[in-house]
Amino acid sequence: xxVRQIREIGDNLLRKKSRPFETVDDKARQLLEDxxxxxxVTKDGVGLAAPQVGVLRRAIVVDLSMExxxxxxxxxxxxxxxxxxxxxxxxxxxxxxxxxxxxxxTRPEKVTVEALDxxxxxxxxxxxxxxxxxxxxxxxxxxxxxxxxKATEIFDQDELQEEER
Length: 165
Ligand SMILES: [Zn+2]
What we know:
Layout: H1 26-40, E1 47-49, E2 59-64, E3 72-86, E4 89-93, E5 101-107, E6 110-116, E7 122-128, H2 130-141, H3 147-150, E8 153-156, H4 157-164
Antiparallel strand pairs: 1-2, 2-3, 3-6, 4-5, 5-8, 6-7
The structure holds zinc ion.
C-alpha cells in the first residue's frame, strides 16, 4: 500500500505512451493497489491512470462507487482497450493532473472496454454515461492524451464556483 505523488501537466512523462503488461503479476497488482490508494486520498477523483503516478504501464483504476445515482466499481484494469463505441455526449471534466481546470469534452455515449482484471482474467465492461466518460479519459492517459487536448472550452474552477454563488 502506498500513496504516490500525482504528476501534473507540464511533466513530460504524462505525454508518453505507456507499455502494455505481458502478464498480470504481483508488480502489476501492486501498481493497481497504489493507484487505488492514491485515488482514495484525493477529494473528488473518480479515476487514475499509471502515468499520472509516473509509471508508463497500461493500468487504470476507475471508482464510481461513491456516486449517488449509479454507483459502480471500483474497476482495476490492466491493458484496457475500447473495442466498441457509439453515440456522443459532452461532459465537463477535470483531471487530477490538471488541477484547478475544467473543460467541456465530447466523448462517446457508450463504450465497450476489454481488459484484464487483477487476476489476469479477461473482463468486458459495457459502459454508458459517466462511466463511459471516465474510462475513455483514463485510457487516453495511457496514450499521453489529456482532456485539455480535446476540450472545446476550458474553465478555471474558482471562477465557475464564483459564478454559482
Ligand atoms: Zn485525468
